[in-house]
Amino acid sequence: MLGLRAIKDSSEHTGSYYAASRQPTTDYSFLSEAATCDVVVVGGGFSGVNTAVELTERGYEVILIEANRIGWGASGRNGGQIIGGIGHTPERFKKLIGEQGIKTIYQMGIEARDVIKERIETYGIDCDLKWGYCDVALKPRHMKEFAIWRDWERTIGNPHPYTLLDASELKSFVNSDRYLGGLHNTANGHIHPLNLCVGEAAAAVRCGARVFEQTRAIEIIPGDNPVVKTEHGSITAKQIVLAGNAYMGKLIPKLSLRVLPSASSVIATEPLSEALATKLLPGDVAVCDPRTALDYFRLSADRRMLFGGLSNYTGMEPKNLVPVMRKKMRNVFAELADIKIEYAWSGWIGIGINRMPQLGKLAPNIRYIQAYSGHGVAPTHMMAKITAESIAGETNRFDVMAAIPHMAFPGGRVLGRPLLAAGMAYYKFLDLF
Ligand SMILES: Cc1cc2nc3c(=O)[nH]c(=O)nc-3n(C[C@H](O)[C@H](O)[C@H](O)COP(=O)(O)OP(=O)(O)OC[C@H]3O[C@@H](n4cnc5c(N)ncnc54)[C@H](O)[C@@H]3O)c2cc1C
After folding, report:
1. Average pLDDT, the chain
2. Domain range holding 400?
3. Closest Cα to atom 21, ligand 1: which residue?
4. Among 18, 31, 420, residue whose Cα is nearest residue 212
5. Is 53 part of a structural domain of the chain?
6. Whose CA is nearest to atom 14 of ligand 1?
7. What atom of ligand 1 comes closest to residue 369's alpha carbon?
8. CATH of the domain at 18
9. What tens digit of pLDDT does each residue of 316-361 get?
10. Is 70 exceeded by the pLDDT of residue 428?
């Protein structure tokens, strides 16, 4: 398609700032035998890795397989923004999950960030965790929505205060003339996502999990003891968890029809001087605007501006990615108009039609987790936790999520893309007002 190109990256994931600053590099061998275990987890992103951590902490014998390297997918490429909440407006499903189900989802949305916090503390993971976050307003109606949202967080018992800021107050966090104000909180924050994911995989190994990289599941054979076949081996287990999300291709058509890989992109500047970094983002917060095709940005630990955006439902990125992203960044910070951009990369967000994470069972012993619709850093950790709970017999929270129905994209991925693009174009049009 004109002006677009496929996202390219080696199976080692070398293209991003995160890959260049990954500590340490993972080098788990590939599976070349017929193995057995209690639970095999497919996919080495946050969903899969944290399912492995949660299960090994509970005493299960776990094998985790990743087709490329740990964190190769969205988990090692994202904006690094830890954002509370699980999915969007669970009230829509009240008839199916009841008032209690809705409350459960809101409570999980608060708990998710603590799962990350505890994991980092428990295993001493070095991933530049910072708390502090601003949603920023581009329209007067955004400020009204933020006020409702602040009150709502109080209503659901979020212990972290949300503070409404006018344009001048916002400048002590986000020093740009672009915004009319914002909503600040310390419930949310930011991390180096690849270092978190790699550190969590190491935690799973410390707890006894076996991890294999460059090991793609090519067939799932259901049964009392289901089997995952890989190119050079197989794993027979009591349970399987599928966590390949937008990158799982056609392994399970029922799942791939419900998640559409959509591209989002990030650039990283050269390191800014301390004075410039402090001038632009004095509070070192992560920042996000409320549009459908949103901007999201923050500083890395070495003071690069990491600026993300775009949402391309073709799954491809612009051929002129750097100029496109530079323009977006310049609209927020004119000071960065000529700054050197050292890295630019893209990844796949798994979009679902109703924008709620998809959890469920393909068989009593085969579970899946996918489709966070661009909001997954914290929710993956929570969904991994409740998946492990469910395997351990505490099924309540998993069952709430599994009760939410998920439609396949009409026309599959081929026709689903233009349909989703048309739907999103409508929401982008509404963003103009
Ligand atoms: C550019 C970008 C920016 C984003 N920014 C944010 C943000 O700031 N905040 C936020 O909350 N969310 C953000 N997200 C979304 C978030 O990153 C994802 O929701 C989350 O990482 C999903 O994690 P996951 O483990 O489910 O999937 P992934 O991280 O995609 O992991 C799936 C893994 O499974 C592997 N796999 C697939 N098939 C197989 C197979 N057959 N066998 C073995 N392995 C397989 C893949 O190689 C991949 O590594 C962003 C996403 C992108 C792409």
Report:
1. 94
2. 4-78+194-257+354-413
3. 75
4. 31
5. yes
6. 374
7. 26
8. 3.50.50.60
9. 888 889 999 999 999 999 999 999 999 999 999 999 999 999 999 9
10. no
Ligand 1 mean position to 411 CA, how many Å?
24
Query: What local confidence, expressed as pLDDT, does residue 10 receive?
Result: 75
Sequence-distant (6+) residues with CB within 8 A of 163 are 150, 183, 184, 185
Q: Which residues lie with the beta carbon below 6 Å from any ligand 1 atom?
A: 42-48, 65-68, 72-75, 77-81, 83, 216-217, 243-248, 251, 264, 266, 296, 308, 347-349, 372, 374-377, 380
Condensed to tens digits (0 to 9), the pLDDT of residues 36-62 reads: 999 999 999 999 999 999 999 999 999
Look-up of token digits 């293209």: 15
Length of the chain: 433
For residue 199, being part of any structural domain is answered with yes
Which residues of 18-113 form beta strands (DSSP E)? 34-42, 62-65, 81-82
Residue 36 belongs to some domain of the structure? yes
pLDDT tens, position by position, 201-254: 999 999 999 999 999 999 999 999 999 999 999 999 999 999 999 999 999 999
Domain count of the fold of the chain: 1
Question: What separation in Å is there between the alpha carbon of 165 and the centre of ligand 1?
Answer: 32
Within 333-395, where are the H helices?
Answer: 377-391
297 part of a folded domain: no
Residue 151 Cα to ligand 1 midpoint, Å, equals 32
Instruction: Give the per-residue pLDDT at 424.
Output: 64
Cα 164 to middle of ligand 1, angstroms? 32
Report DSSP state, residue 246.
Answer: G
